[in-house]
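Hey forum,

I'm writing up a methods section and want to include a predicted complex as supplementary material. The small molecule is zinc ion. I've pasted the protein sequence and the SMILES. Can someone with a working setup run it? I'll credit the forum in the acknowledgements.
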Amino acid sequence: MKRLLPVVWIALTLSLALGLVSAQDGADPTDTSLDALPPGATPAPLPTRMPRPAPSARVNGERASLAIFFETLPQGTTGLLYVSGEAVSGVRARFIDQLIDFYPISGDGFYGMISANMEQAPRRYPLDVFVSYDDGTREPINTEVELVLGGFITQEVNIPQDKGNLLGPDVERNELARLESIFGSVTLERWWDETGFQMPILAQLTSPFGAFRAFNSTLNTRHTGWDIRSTLGTPVMASAAGRVVYAGMMDIRGSYVMIDHGYGVYSGYAHLSQTHVTRGQTVAKGQIIGMTGDNGRTSGPHFHWEITVNGEWVDSVQFITMWMP
Ligand SMILES: [Zn+2]
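Reply by user p_vandermeer:
Happy to help. Structure tokens for the complex are below, copy them as they are.
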């Protein structure tokens, strides 16, 4: 990280603390409406994990039963499935273009997550679950899942002229393709534990996942994660245990860390001023992996946090609030 003059540092820290500088992902620095709370407003409580819900639906096969823990699947969200039965040795599922491996929980059953692309057309889609048994036989359990609109907001955002080169559609396309080549592969190891995932910074959420964004009135794009309010140099924690699959610079995300948590779940941490991990390293839940910064496609210091499930960008807040073993 480049050292700032102490005076500049203090001025910047002070103005951020006073809410004078907006700290959004490319937001207009003069528009604090996305980031600042109105005077006297009470900050929203931080998202917390929900208790285990009752299944919304059950579909019985000959020897096993599929439980579905959600009513409908909004665009850009994740849903939990559960299969239990005698002598089940493995479970896979097919949903839209995803092939999902379920993970075993000893003495319980098999859990799997399906996710919906934020642009997937709302309608009913087949969900085909394949249950394998100890005796080598296999049984399909077929049902449908209703995918509904995600209810995303629209944002006009502006970044400084000197970052105008980051508004080219090729820059975005290339970066997304590079990331997809990383989070497209599935590691059959569950790194997280029964406590689930956590926020990487315990601070106010600002700009939401999935927002339709018009950058400087020239580039239309989607927000792949959530922004969290932070000053420069706030410690960033790993949302769960995993293995670091990327630690380095990207054009839009700036200094970036991505962690593989297994079974198709990855988390990403962007615009960092420092990274404390390297590729290949394993990390524990809550471990400090870096410090917040403002490099990449930003208009000021803030933190961008994102999660992918089965190769799709999903709402990271919905993901961590969802109960899963
Ligand atoms: Zn962001």
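Some notes you might quote in the supplement: Helices lie at 6-17, 169-183, 316-321. Residues 47 and 317 are 7 Å apart (CA to CA).
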